[in-house]
Amino acid sequence: MTDLSIHAPDPSQRLWRRLRSEYFASPLGSILTLVCVAILGLLIWWVLDWALFRATFEADARAAECRANGGACWAVIANRWRLIMFGIYPYDEQWRSALACVIVIATVVLSCLPRMWGIIRLAAIWLFAALAFYILMKGGALGLSRVSEEQWGGLALTLFLFVSTVVIGMPLAVMLALMRRSEMPVIARVTGLFIDAIRSLPLLAILFTFAVVLPFVLPAMLTGEKLYRVIVGLAIFFAAYQAEIIRGGLQGTASGQEEAAKALGIPYRYRISRIVLPQAFRLALPATINQIVITFMETSLVVVVGFVELLAAGNAAYNTGEWKFAYVEVYVFISAIYFTFVFGLSRYGAYLERRMNVGRR
Which residues have CB under 8 Å from 208's CB, separation 6+? Predict the structure, then answer.
């Protein structure tokens, strides 16, 4: 009797056929593949040899011992990690800065959970987190000593700048996007000019204006601390770019739905908040995630107006004492921190795109 059953192909044989057809299809292709594999293997070996096999990990190792070994000197991280993570925050109070970082990260993670997506819930969480962060960092209450904003630094300052910029800038961006598509020509034209003016300026110019120029122009009672002026500048810069992203999403929504809701007598605020904006954010999600990632990177520019954020704290870590030769190790450590946050944001953005079926209209 003839066997009519269908046999599934062996996965290993399928993989080998694919590799042979793509990388060993011709003699020249085979040679190029082997050369690339050899070069990649040498690079991997060189990195492992420098970073692991000849590296110095002991926290009490001195700089001369590290240089003699010839490998990576991770001892500089063990010796300077407080300066990198907390900047010039008072040494005995750095536990407050560490706890503030944990609160910010936990709040961001909690806000990413779908069950927490509600205006009242998110507002309550962020209000509590902002109050806790400010009391911990600033002090002056609950028996905590007062610490000036000028002394905030390291990872805590970077997270504070990033979260504050997005939390303040996102509602401002929504408002600007709606004003730009207003049926009143004056409002739409003035909003467009404002967005174009902000986008035509480099971020460094905006930071310098808010940090240095404003105190000479406005009364002291209107300017406040330099740190908060810098946050306002970052938020306005973020809002100008994000408003254009949201406006693109608004233009991509079907206008018939809003017109139908208007014909049914649904008030404007419900048409916008329940029908138009959710679709616009869904369409604008990939560009929004990209803008948020760029904003996280741009917080490092506040060093030009005198703040010791994460990257500036790293520079100070190897530029003091005997560790000036270990700048590569410090930058690798800081890059790993940035990569962790950016990779997490990117993966969460990809999860949201799958959940909302972005691109499958």
Answer: 304, 305
Nearest to 202 by CA among 170, 167, 171, 233: 233
| Long-range pairs, 103-108, Cβ under 8 A, ≥24 | 103/129, 103/132, 103/133, 103/136, 104/129, 104/133, 104/156, 104/159, 104/160, 104/163, 105/159, 107/163, 108/163
Q: What does 74-98 look like in DSSP terms, one character per residue? A: THHHHHHHHHHHHTTS-GGGHHHHH
Cα separation, 336 vs 158, in Å, equals 15
How does DSSP classify residue 272?
Answer: I
- Beta-strand runs (E) in 173-293: none
User: 279 is written with which tokens?
Assistant: 């679709």
pLDDT in single tens digits along all 361 residues of the chain: 455 555 555 666 677 777 777 777 788 888 888 999 999 999 999 989 888 888 777 766 676 777 777 788 887 888 788 888 888 888 888 888 889 888 888 888 888 777 777 777 878 888 888 888 888 888 877 788 888 878 888 888 888 888 889 888 988 999 998 888 888 888 889 999 999 999 998 988 998 888 888 888 777 777 778 888 899 999 999 999 999 998 888 887 766 777 777 777 777 777 777 778 888 888 888 888 888 888 888 888 888 888 888 888 888 888 877 777 788 888 898 899 889 888 888 888 888 878 776 555 5
Dist. CA 333–CA 155, nearest whole Å: 12
Distance (Å, rounded) from C-alpha 230 to C-alpha 234? 6
Number of H helices, E strands in the chain: 18, 2
| Single-letter amino acid, residue 347 | R
- In this structure, the number of other CB atoms found within 10 A of the CB of residue 36 comes to 11
Three-state DSSP state, 47: helix
Q: Could you tell me the two tokens for 177?
A: 């996007």
